[in-house]
Design a protein that fits this description.
The chain is 49% helix and 9% strand. It is built from 24 helices and 13 strands. The strands form 3 sheets. Strands 5, 6, 7, 8, 9, 10, 11, 12 and 13 form a 9-stranded mixed beta sheet that branches. Strands 1-4 form a two-stranded parallel ribbon. The chain has a two-stranded antiparallel sheet with strand order 2-3. Helix 8 runs antiparallel to helix 9. It is elongated, with a radius of gyration of 34 Å.
């Protein structure tokens, strides 16, 4: 429509509908020529230079309807002067701006409009209606997918009334500037609303305009792992094109509507006044339609909320820096740390996206609960016992590192800025506490890490085995670089089975339950794991991400299967390779995305401590946790940042702030 509308504004020089001649036109040689009412008016010599400087601005008014026969040159009208008497061209190029010099696009559009006036008028009105619909959509658009109901778009936005009033009273040039800026602002608002929808769907919160830009790099990596380089490039290109389209179309729409109210000032003023009175009345009386207020001020509130969010983010950065410097165990002597766990081989394992929904959701719970029961029986038969409870994660749906750091540090790490602050400091972590005793070697097995990881030093991990150091030769399973069974087997081969002068403190992050849950690995005989090549056939036979990621029912089913696989892999490893000195803590880092866990799901995740030595579990008998791998529904729920201090205290650590 952009090409079709160029040059149709009544503000454009040479495009305005001609005025009816008041008398004979004295143009020298052409004075005897008959008047052609369809010909373009040619500016007089004294006005040509002045008008030339405004052609660019005037032609930008793409929203004007050039087929409005009653329109006159707005430039002349606003200057207070009558439209000049103009010579009528005869097609021979006898004027100062001959018809042959008209831009081709504008000339073709004018010619088509003259030949098909009804179609041109219909197209113009259709474009205007679409522009109005687009603007109203931007003003009334919810920021959460669950709120998209028809009644949301039957409200009266105060911003539209105020904007119309402003465009009515402004002169042409300021009106164009204001319309362009307003259109761009509405375009940005629309994009931010779509980002809010996406973040609410995946992370259970809105988009943070200060901190969340860095997450787009992770999103691109996720797309590459899920859909391949070609698919990821196509999705990114489409997203960029949509952003540009939204900005351009929204700007053109506001400009067009601004031109419309300017050409019909009297009618626009009456309509705006009626709408303003209606809005005030509805707001004062609290009028609602199916529970939705008719008087809307969503944009104003959204801008206010975003501004407040920016202020809170900036304040939080400074306040958290002070909080992170305080540590109840910062000065605890090594001899007074974890005295009741000395000599134990400690393993802390995170299972990706292992949330409360896996245990309690009607779709996923039957399979997961059956797996927890059978795996708990394996533990019992092998002489192990377990206690389980709930922790409320600092994140939801993603950003697993926020959950990891919250659990390890005892600080509430709910955003990227807090993560950067804490990992740049020296706040004591759980692995760091074991390292500080001097009695442990600390190891990390993290197959999800595929690039440099400077946080290793902060966590107190001496030796890191990432995706490139576990010897895996098999295929990736979407985002997950390797199956959990392989990662645990590699841990046994490279670390646990080796002779050590000190007990191990191992941190393991399992990734097979990471979205999109397609394809999912299968358990293979332990002696066939090898270098991972056996998984090639399993990966090829599995589901394709595109078949699962867009379907909530399928995602639920496959997510449940992935949790069953991860839990089974971990317990099988513990039963086979654990001993009387092994202590395992395993938990989820966060709930799965809302498409799986459901709208307004809690942020709770299961946590379990497993050991053969009964003294280990006796130390936490007063925690009220449930016996076994499956916590009861009413088991205690702690915030995840509370675990570190409770754990350190339970196992003999003396606080020294």
């Amino acid at each position: 429509m952009a090409a079709a509308e160029t040059g149709t504004g009544t503000d454009s020089v040479g495009d305005a509908a001609p005025t009816e001649p008041e008398g004979p036109v004295e143009t020298g040689a052409a004075s005897d020529a008959p008047t052609d009412s369809s010909a373009e008016a040619v500016p007089t010599e004294t006005e040509a230079a002045a008008e030339a400087s405004t052609v660019t601005e005037e032609s930008a008014e793409v929203g004007a309807d050039a087929d409005d026969d009653s329109a006159v040159s707005e430039g002349a009208a606003e200057s207070g002067a009558d439209a000049p008497d103009a010579p009528v061209g005869d097609g021979a190029g006898d004027g100062e701006e001959p018809p042959g010099d008209e831009p081709p696009v504008r000339g073709r559009w004018r010619g088509w409009r003259d030949r098909y006036p009804v179609a041109a008028r219909t197209l113009a009105w259709t474009t205007t209606v679409l522009a109005a619909v687009l603007v109203l959509f931007a003003l009334l658009m919810p920021s959460q997918a669950g709120k998209f109901h028809p009644t949301e778009f039957l409200r009266l936005p105060v911003e539209a009334i105020f904007g119309a009033a402003l465009l009515i009273v402004l002169p042409r040039r300021p009106r164009i500037v204001v319309a362009v800026l307003a259109g761009l602002a509405l375009g940005v608002l629309t994009i931010l609303n779509f980002l809010d929808i996406g973040f609410n769907e995946y992370l259970g919160r809105g988009f943070n305009v200060v901190l969340d830009w860095s997450l787009f790099g992770d999103a691109q990596a996720y797309l590459q792992d899920t859909f391949g380089n070609g698919g990821a490039l196509g999705i990114v290109a489409l997203a960029v094109a949509l952003v540009i389209a939204v900005l351009v179309l929204m700007t053109m729409s506001v400009v067009r509507l601004g031109n419309l109210v300017a050409r019909n000032t009297e009618a626009a003023t009456r309509t705006t006044l009626v709408l303003a009175i209606t809005w005030v009345t509805c707001a004062a009386l609290g009028v609602q339609f199916t529970g939705v207020p008719v008087a809307s001020e969503d944009v104003a509130l959204a801008v206010q909320n975003r501004a407040e969010g920016v202020r809170k983010t900036l304040r939080d950065e400074a306040e958290f820096a002070k909080i992170a410097k305080k540590d109840n165990f910062a000065n605890t002597p090594p001899s007074q740390l974890l005295t009741d766990l000395r000599g134990k081989d400690m393993i802390i394992t995170f299972i990706e996206s292992y949330g409360r929904s896996a245990i309690e959701d009607p779709v996923m719970a039957p399979g997961v609960d059956a797996t927890l029961t059978s795996e708990n029986n394996k533990l019992t038969q092998a002489g192990f016992a377990a206690k389980s409870g709930w922790l409320t994660s600092a994140t939801y749906g993603g950003s697993s590192w926020l959950g990891h750091s919250t659990f390890m540090s005892g600080l509430w790490i709910s955003n990227q800025q807090r993560y950067r602050t804490v990992t740049a400091g020296s706040h004591l972590t759980l692995p760091g506490a074991f390292k500080k005793t001097g009695d442990y070697d600390t190891v990390g097995v993290m197959p999800g890490i595929q690039k440099a990881w400077p946080e290793q030093k902060y966590y107190g991990i001496d030796k890191l085995y990432d995706a490139h150091h576990l010897g895996y030769k098999g295929p990736k399973f979407s985002w997950s670089t390797m199956p959990d069974q392989y990662a645990l087997t590699a841990f046994e081969r490279l670390v646990h089975s080796k002779k050590h002068d000190k007990p191990l403190m191992s941190t393991i992050i399992l990734t097979s339950s990471h979205q999109p849950w397609a394809p999912i690995p299968k358990t293979v005989p332990q002696d066939q794991v090898g270098d991972g090549s056996i998984y090639n056939a399993i990966e090829k036979a599995g589901n394709k991400p595109a078949d699962i990621i867009t379907s909530s029912p399928k995602s639920k089913v496959e997510y449940g299967k992935s949790i069953q696989y991860s839990v089974t892999s971990l317990i099988d490893y513990l039963v086979k390779y654990g001993n009387k000195n092994t202590v395992l803590i395993f938990l989820g880092d966060h709930q799965p995305i809302a498409r799986v866990s459901g709208d307004h799901a809690s942020r709770d995740v299961p946590v379990s401590i497993i050991a053969k030595d009964p003294k280990v579990l006796d130390k936490i008998a007063d925690w009220g946790w449930t016996d076994g791998l499956q916590p009861e529904h009413n088991a205690p729920v702690w915030k995840m940042d509370a675990f570190r201090d409770r754990f350190l205290t339970a196992y003999g650590s003396t606080p020294h702030p």
